[in-house]
Write a structure and sequence with these properties.
This protein is an alpha+beta fold and 431 residues long. It has 14 helices and 21 strands. Helices cover 20% and strands 25% of the residues. The termini are far apart.
Length: 431
């Protein structure tokens, strides 16, 4: 059994704001280990709903042993994610682990199955040990991303200023408080089963608090989701720059961790969530007869504070426009095989190439040759003329892909569900 335990020794003090705060560690199989080696399994008994949400999230499945797409790229560029001592082609510790396996990265381990905490991706401890985001980017040519972008504490903390006291410190705190208010199970329970901590009263106590308000802001996310470039300086993931460009007052959490009954949703859906994608872009369809033809306008509105698609450069989106007769027979479509060449305006992509302008994988790309993604809050209209006779209905469908067409062909071993387009929007007009 894994239990949190307070280490009250002078050698285990974390200094924040001038206050010395005893740090926490975990007891694992009778041994004291750092918090980053604590499995999320130890949290689920109390945080059942949150644990279930997180367990099915891409954060929980972000490592190269769990995410098939990341795993395929990791094996191609780094090596076996279950082996120790793996490096990139320059002999450096794999930078991707700072985001995809931060618990392992804290121990500079590439053996992701060495312990559960390493293979749990972005786990409870990963986020709830962040103090603040120092800023992602490059320092002296070296990437400062993911774990490296954060100041990390050895004391767990939440966004609401909870105190995580144990043992005698918890007993003393309980005596100062009544048993009404917010339940804080990190305090433990007394012999009557009481374990309550009113946050408003804690704020009035003269106690060293670890309340991390940055967990309520986008700073909690942008250490990993800010920006990334390859060795040639080509931007790959740049959600942070897109977010800054939007000048929004919304936080990442307002969309990706919407509160339900006062608790933030730890599913943290993104590009793998059809529900989130459906809310990201609004699609409107207008069809008007004009001079013996049908004038069609498809309006797309990106309601997000970043590009759509965003993140991994191989994600893309396309519009399929179709016309049918009264029996549902297809009479006209804006493309036959793929809009990439047949209808470029309907293909929303971030295309990378080598020096010769040929398509290139993100790590090897030297230039960006096309960026037709929807910009933050952008409204874009696509116009068409349909000349087919006997059209009785026109349908517009918006599809999202996790992989580029070229990657779909090359990565045949990936599950079909990851390669298949996801319909995230549609509209139909009857004539």
């Amino acid at each position: 059994m894994i239990q949190l335990r307070r280490l009250v020794t002078i050698g285990s003090l974390f200094v924040m704001g001038g206050a010395a705060i005893p740090t926490q560690a975990a007891t694992l199989d009778g041994k004291q280990v750092p918090l980053n080696q604590l499995s999320a399994e130890s949290c689920k008994d109390c945080h059942k709903a949150i644990y279930k949400q997180w367990k099915g999230s891409m954060h929980a499945n972000s490592t190269a042993l769990k995410d098939p797409i990341h795993g395929a790229l990791y094996r191609k560029l780094i090596g076996d994610p279950s082996q120790p001592g793996q490096t990139d082609k320059k002999g450096n510790f794999p930078v991707c682990l700072n985001c995809h396996a931060p618990n392992a990265a804290r121990d500079t381990s590439t053996e992701l199955d060495a312990m559960p905490a390493y293979n749990e991706g972005v786990s409870c401890v990963s986020c709830h040990s962040f103090v603040h985001n120092k800023g992602a980017g490059f320092v002296d040519g070296k990437p400062v991303l993911g774990l490296k972008a954060y100041e990390v504490s050895d004391q767990l903390q939440g966004p609401m200023g909870f105190v995580h006291e144990q043992g005698a410190a918890a007993d003393a705190l309980r005596k100062a408080l009544d048993d009404e208010g917010e339940l804080n199970p990190h305090l433990g329970r007394d012999n009557q089963g009481r374990a309550y901590l009113p946050a408003k009263e804690v704020a009035e106590l003269d106690l060293p608090l670890q309340g991390n308000t940055s967990l309520q802001t986008s700073n909690a996310c942008l250490g990993c989701h800010d920006k990334m470039q390859n060795v040639h300086g080509v931007p790959l993931c740049a959600t942070g720059d897109e977010y800054d460009k939007s000048a929004t007052q919304e936080s990442c959490q307002s969309c990706h961790m919407a509160s339900v009954k006062g608790v933030a949703d730890h599913s943290m859906g993104g590009g793998h969530s059809v529900g989130v994608l459906k809310r990201a872009v609004k699609l409107d369809l207008q069809v008007e007869p004009e001079a013996g033809q049908l004038a069609v306008k498809v309006q797309l509105h990106n309601k997000s504070a970043h590009n759509v698609p965003t993140g991994a450069p191989f994600r893309n989106m396309y519009l399929k426009l179709s016309a049918f007769d009264v029996n549902g027979k297809l009479l006209w479509q804006n493309f036959q095989k793929h809009p990439m060449k047949e209808d470029p305006q309907a293909f929303f992509v971030y295309a990378l190439a080598d020096k010769e302008g040929k398509p290139a994988m993100p790590p090897m790309a030297t230039q960006v040759v096309k960026n037709t993604r929807l910009q933050p809050y952008e409204r874009r209209a696509l116009e068409y003329r349909i000349t087919a006779d006997n059209v009785k209905s026109v349908r517009a469908e918006l599809y999202f892909n996790l992989l580029s067409p070229g990657m779909v062909k090359k990565m045949k071993a990936l599950p079909d569900a990851l390669k298949a387009p996801k319909r995230i929007g549609w509209s139909e007009v009857q004539l």
